[in-house]
Amino acid sequence: MPERVLMEGSAAIVEAAVQAGCRFYAGYPITPSTEILELMSVRMPQVGGTCMNAESEIEAIGMVWGAAGCGVRSMIASTGQGISLMQESFAELANAQIPIVAVNMCRGQGDYFQATRGGGHGDYRFIVLAPSTAQEAADLTQLAFHLADKWRNPVMIMGDFLLSHTSEMVSFAAPALAELPPKEWAVTGAKGRRGITLSPLGPSEKLSTDVAAALANVTAKHSAIVSEEVRVEHGFLEDAELVVVAFGFPGRFVKYAVRLARERGLRVGYVRPISLWPFPRHAVASAAATARAVAVFELNAGQMIEDVQLSVLGRVPVVAIGGISHDHSGFGVGPLLNVEHILKRIGQVYSGKEDP
Amino acid sequence: MSAVTGSGERGLRKVFEKPDLLLSAEHSLCPGCGEPVALRVILEAVQELGLRERTICVAGIGCYTAFPMIMDVDVMQALHGRAPSVATGVKRVRPDAFVFTMQGDGDMISEGLQEVLHAAARGERITAIVFNNAVFGETGGHMTAATVLGQHTKTSVGGRDRERHGNPIRISELVAQLDGAAYVARSAVHTPSAIKLTEQYLRDAFQCQLEGRGFSLLEILTMCPTDWFVTPAQGPAFLAERIEPTFPLGIIKS
User: Fold this and answer.
1) ipTM over 0.90
2) CATH code of the domain occupying A232-350
3) Rounded to a whole number, what is the distance in Å from the CA of B69 to chain A's nearest CA?
4) Beta-carbon-side half-sphere exposure of residue B241 (alpha carbons within 13 Å)
5) Tens of pLDDT along A28-81?
6) CB neighbours (10 Å) of residue A244?
7) Which strands, in side-by-side order, build the sheet including A232-235?
8) Chain B residues with CB inside 8 Å of A195's CB?
9) Are A191 and B96 contacting, i.e. CB atoms less than 8 angstroms apart?
10) So what CATH class is B32-253?
């Protein structure tokens, strides 16, 4: 049994990244992601890696681009505002098929659209994973590096202030992940071969001009990712009349509230999407198939609810029971993230007192 | 830029040919453009210094973005303005690589000014090359941060005016002030002697990187007759008379 260590979610992500072979990190301080930069500045040199305290988020993602393009596992972290600054590079990293892991320690959950739709241009997608505990953050970080390399596509870890700063017991078992092929696409210097161009604009072969084929090649894998990489947790669905959907750290609160609702005799179940893209459409749809209603708890004005609606396709009412929730800090820790409050909202929807 | 050869019968000898690292003698840029000349000089230097297999070029966005396709070295294509940070990531994980960037004045001095200044201040062991033609060539002739006073562009109609448009930035002088910058020079490609100067400065800049002395920058003034609204034949004279006075040639820091 691997040793269990008490650490914050940020530290769990850093250690998992180190164990996954991450050897380059660049970042710019911003709450609540700053601890990742602080820890990386200590850990990277210890393992022969490099941590850059970049002069801006835009330069940070450029540095990560360069390192990852050389085939080195590389990571960046920020919060929504800083992630916004990186969007041009995010879009083009996907087009250049350069695998990186990006962590967004959001303020609240207002960056769901940004993460799943992307703030950048073009037809790109990020695989987005939303851990709800420090342990899951460690596990998903290891997985994220694997998926990024497997698909040659960026992967985002989406957390929040509470995930970043809550200390929990974490262990680091080496995950059983399939062997991946060598990164023959990486830029290494043209030793014994013709040069290559690693570019978001077109093909890597010299003298080739087939831009359309290169870009089609990037998006062709999206359907394969949708069919292979959905991850979801659910519970109490067998006879559930109400299904509650929630992701990330607040997903734990919902899970607990649903358990309390069950103790009070309410037939309530939950679905917690772990991959936000690809979204677990089938899991939500099949849970909704036998329910009277679906409630969505998210700490924003209503973002994931659109994916839930697209999954349910009008079969049952979909009700928002979350909302924007902040204290004076603005970092997304507010009064709505409260089990009693969630339980009350579940009860209202369950009893039909909430008009959908 | 096809090879100039003579007939052996008449005792002529080959005096010029494209470097092997140039995969095609054709380029897709305008007649009279200075950038293909600069590219040829760069690839000759890489070849002569035996750096091909260590080279990673990071290219910006401009007319010269057509070059990576015909350069037989590894190239990472960066976004507009971002080549210095991308090159930083490359060099930090591949310290034995020979890393140079190719940017234009729009890319480096307008869009990405912060990038080049920070990379220079950090003393990144990379060589930044900027093709300065004092205009956004690829978009069709718009004012950059290096457009000289009085220069007519589509967004400084009638000439760049100090009051209305502000002043041009001399990037080499700016970078030279930074402690991490070890070598800074400005050359041009409008005359044979200027091209010789470019060859010499380029070797100095590359040597600076190879010796690990710090950041090196070579600013190469290039002709853009299309967006200077002159004929290709008038390009070199326009550079000498209108552009060079704002950007004097020479070694600025060594």
Assistant:
1) yes
2) 3.40.50.920
3) 5
4) 7
5) 999 999 999 999 999 999 999 999 999 999 999 999 999 999 999 999 999 999
6) 30
7) A232-235, A268-273, A242-245, A293-296, A318-320
8) 71-75
9) no
10) alpha beta
